[in-house]
Amino acid sequence: MQPSNEQDRAKWAAGTAVIDAYIRDGMKLGLGSGTTSHWFVRALGEAVSNGLNVVGVPTSTGTRDLALEVGVPLTTLAEVGRLDLTVDGADEIDPAGHMIKGGGACLLWERIIADTSNKVVCVVDEGKVVDQLGKFPLPIEVVQYEWQATERAISSLLDELGQPGVKLTRREKDGGPLVTDSGNFIVDAHLEAIKDPIALDSQLNWIPGVVENGLFTGIAAEVVIGRADGSHDIRD
Ligand code: 5RP
Q: 80 CB contacts (<8 Å, ≥6 apart)?
């Protein structure tokens, strides 16, 4: 499979650069979700077919299916405990390395995998690098039960944090609510600018009914930024 346009080529550049820069024989890997991570998983499959010995834990059913298709051996956290390295994408990343994730609705599994990894490397195309997070709507995973009450509580928290009147929308797919791999809904918060990502990240998950939020603060150790000309930069 080849990249089909400029953004895809930049994603390919980031996803494939990871193999030489970070992947070593014997590693236990977290396999991220989204199109950039999937370029990494495809390149990893090729490296495995050339003799690399690694195992991976996928962050979504989509990534699991792709890993099986390209021949990356899979395992579980139950079997291996911790992971050496996770490679995952982002919807936005700021100069401090704080990210918005969950554009593909996989944030809960992604956070579990990131949390059990010794190191997280973020792979993005250059369009994802921003000065301030928030133009991309912040995904918040909520349980289905009485989800409108959870949505109201999110709204109240945003008021308290000095971001009143933020539009919240339940994510839809194929004419109905999108349901995540864990059976939950996603509420997207259209913040436009997130004043204090660390405060918001830590407080959102205290709301009963919120399972996880897409603000990943202090998680990415290094960032691989791909460009449309096929080159890349690594920033720590
Ligand atoms: C999925 C994610 C993805 O990593 C994020 O949406 C980036 O996706 P892509 O690489 O397709 O732009 O967080 O939940």
A: 28, 55, 57
pLDDT number for residue 144: 98
For residues 197 and 108, give the distance between their C-alpha atoms in angstroms, rounded to a whole number: 18
- Helix (H) or strand (E) holding 233, with range, is strand 232-235
Q: Which residue has the tokens 């928030």?
A: 134
124: left (phi over 0), alpha (psi -120 to 50) or beta: beta
Residue with tokens 């791999």: 181
Reading the block at residue 71, the tokens are 């021949």
Regions of the chain with pLDDT less than 70: none
CA distance 102 to 91: 7
110 is a catalytic site residue:
yes
Judged on CB neighbours under 10 Å (0-12, 13-18, 19+), 126 is middle
Cα of 209 vs centre of ligand 1, distance in Å, is: 23
- Asked whether 102 lines ligand 1 (CB < 6 A), one says yes
The interface predicted TM-score of the complex, written ipTM, equals: 0.98
Question: Ligand 1 centre and the CA of 98: distance in Å?
Answer: 14
